[in-house]
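name: query_chain
kind: protein
chains: 1
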Amino acid sequence: NSIIGRFANYPGYYINGFTDLMQSARYPYEGPDVTYIYYHHIPVQLAFTLDWLVTEAEMRSQGRIRFPWVKQQGYVWFINRIYGHGTGRVFDDQTARVRLLKPDALTVQEKAINHLHARGDELLWVILMNDTTEPVTATVRIDPQRTGVRLGQPYRVLDAEGRQIGGGQTVQTIHQEVPGMGLVALALPAEAQHFAAPPAVEGGHVQQPIAEPWGQMHAFRIRGPFGKDSLYVVLTGRPENGRATLRLAEDPEGSRVDSDYPYEFTVYPWPMDKDMSFTLTLEDGPGRSMTTDRQTLQGTSSSAD
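structure:
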C-alpha cells in the first residue's frame, strides 16, 4: 500500500465526485455524506495504517528499527503486514517488539508528530516522527502505571542513526524536539518484562489422496501471531452434489458440514500445544459414502508469556 499524506478519520469508500470533505477530522460525523461507509473495512484500514507507520520508522532509520511480520491476506486489496508476534530491533535493543498502547497510557500532543511504541525487556521505546519540514517539539505524557515506565531513572534520546543526542531523568511529561521530516527515539526505563516468540509449527501440513470425484485432501495447521492456531482443511475435487463432514476427535458430538464447492473447513481458535485430530466423511450420491483416515497435526509446547 502507498499512502500520500495522512487521514484524520476513516474517510469512507467509493468517493463520488471532486471533493475534499473527507479531509476533515469531523468527517463522516459531519456531512454532507459523499461516500459509502463500509464498517467492515475500518479494521483493515487500521491495519494498513499501522503497516505504513512501522514502515516509515524502518525507512527513516535505514533499517535500524525493524520488526518481524506475518502477511494478512485480506479481502479485495486489503493485504497487510501484521506486527507484534515476535521481537525485532530498535537500534541496539534486539528484544523490542511493536506494542500498541491504549490512547491514555502515552500521548503525544502535537498532531504533526507520529509516534510508534515498542517494548523491550527493560525499555519502552517511543519513536517520534515529524511529518512537517520544520522542527517540532513533541510533548510526551506518560502514565507509569499503564506503561511500566520507571520514573526517576535515566532515559536516552537517540537520533535516526542510533546516536545518543540527549537524555535525562524520566518524568511524566517529556518535551523533545524532532527535526523536520526526522525521527528521534526515547529509550525509557521500564519494569522488566520478557517476551518469547511462539514456537514454529513442525509437520503443519498433511495430505491424503481420495477417490474421485474428491481429489486430494490437504490439512494445514496455521500459527497466527497472537498465540492461537487454526486448522484449515480443503478438498481439491468438485463433486456436483457433494457433502463433506468434518469431525474432530476432541469433540466427537460436534461436526461441521459443507455442501458446496469449494469444500473447505476452518477451525479457530486452537491452543498451540494441543494436537488436532480429525476425520472427514464424504458423500456424493445415494449410498456413496466414505470416511478418510484419521489425521493428526501435533501441537508444540511454548514458553511464551
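note: The first strand starts at residue 65 and ends at 66.
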